[in-house]
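S1.2 Input.
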Amino acid sequence: AMLVIALAIPTVVQGQAIYGTVVDDTARGPVDGAEVDLLHEGAAVAGTVTDSLGRFTIAAPRAGTYGLVVRHAVFMTYQVDSVTLGTGESVTLQIRLGRQAVPLEPLVVTARRSRRGLAGFDERRRAGFGHFIVREDITTRAAGQLTDVLRNVPGLSFRRLRRGGVLTQMRGGASGRCAPAMWVDGIQMQESEQSTLDQIFAPDMIEAVEVYSSHATAPAQYVSGTCGVILFWTRQGSGAEGTPWQWKKVLAGAGAAVLVIILLAR
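S1.3 Output.
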């Protein structure tokens, strides 16, 4: 279900603008990260993204009649063909988006349980070349997502995705930021926009983490490329008691989720 409520408000400022709020039609909560495009004769002339409260502001280049399109990965696309703005006039909109299910390809990973536990973790920690996080640190932080555990690690940053979630980045590379090499219990993995760390792991699945801000200081056997390295050690792989190692990929839409179970081969 989609509903737009428009109110033309004359203003004393120069220029024209649309102020709006995007909400979930079912839960009536704000929709964060929705893409909003202003159209003129079918072409986008301005664009923005809603904030954590679902709010957006988009300026029109001149007075006239415009279209508006709102897109989000887990909601139906909303479009209005006629929003008229007079000179120096603003319009306030409330846009309600209905949900839709968007199936994604499941992430399937086959891994072997490490028989060496943390495989040199304590020795590397004593050497002091990286940043080390142990189970006690994770428990103390009471983090809801794995990236929350990594937030204050020097050299790490997170790029917010428009469809929701974040990608892990590290200083380095031609652009100043690069994707670190990631390993899980000695097996290399790849983070992507479709499979972020927070979709794959929960904090209670992790026993320890090693972060090396440069490939020069990382253990040689884990270096891949010229970016830094992050090593994840799961509770199952390290032999610690706790939640079994399960990899999760959340489907966008309707609260549906696909649970992918890792095959553990001895």
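S1.4 Remarks. Confidence is low (pLDDT under 50) at residues 1-13, 111-115, 241-266.
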